[in-house]
TrEMBL record:
Any matching Pfam family: Staph_reg_Sar_Rot
Similarity section: Belongs to the SarZ family.
Lineage start: Bacteria, Pseudomonadati, Bacteroidota, Bacteroidia, Marinilabiliales
GO molecular function term, any single one: DNA-binding transcription factor activity
Domain HTH marR-type: start-end pairs: 8-138
Localization terms from the record: Cytoplasm
Name of the protein this chain belongs to: HTH-type transcriptional regulator SarZ
A single Gene Ontology CC term: cytoplasm
Principal subcellular localization: cytoplasm
Membrane-crossing segments per the record: none
Length: 141
């Protein structure tokens, strides 16, 4: 068998496995605040700046409308966000945080540190990894 086709020769597999492992570490902490990892990402986008349209949130998370819309509907059902069609263009849905969604931020602020501790790595290791990943992502565009 050609070495190029062996799993141990692939760069993508350990990155894929690491991604799954990191999300696994997030899960118990996000369960405590009743959101999933993709919902957590959407909430972070809104905590940074709101209101935003469905398309704006999807663009920031690299998710298409078919993926982001059900995710946002579930957050709305939990009472964390509100969805409102713009009066000037009813095709555009604007997303805002509810009071409950704003309050969730204080609980979520503890999650990153808990994840770092549960993974047993230093913040510096993660920053170095992030820098390499961002460099590759930037070149791939």
């Amino acid at each position: 068998m050609d070495d190029k086709l062996k799993l141990k020769s692939q760069v993508c597999f350990p990155i894929y496995a690491l991604s799954r492992e990191i999300v696994k570490h997030y899960r118990p902490f996000l369960d405590e605040i009743d959101i999933t990892y993709p919902q957590y990402l959407a909430m972070m986008v809104l905590w940074e700046n709101e209101p935003q349209t469905v398309n704006q949130i999807g663009d920031k998370l690299n998710l298409d409308n078919g993926t982001i819309t059900p995710l946002l509907k579930r957050l709305a059902a939990k009472g964390f966000i509100s969805r409102k069609r713009k009066s000037c263009d009813e095709r555009v849905v604007e997303i805002s945080l509810t009071e409950s969604g704003k309050q969730l931020k204080s609980k979520a602020e503890k999650v990153p540190q808990k994840v770092v501790e549960s993974m047993g790595v230093t913040p510096e290791d993660l920053m170095q990894l992030k820098a390499i990943v961002l460099k590759i992502l930037d070149r791939a565009k």
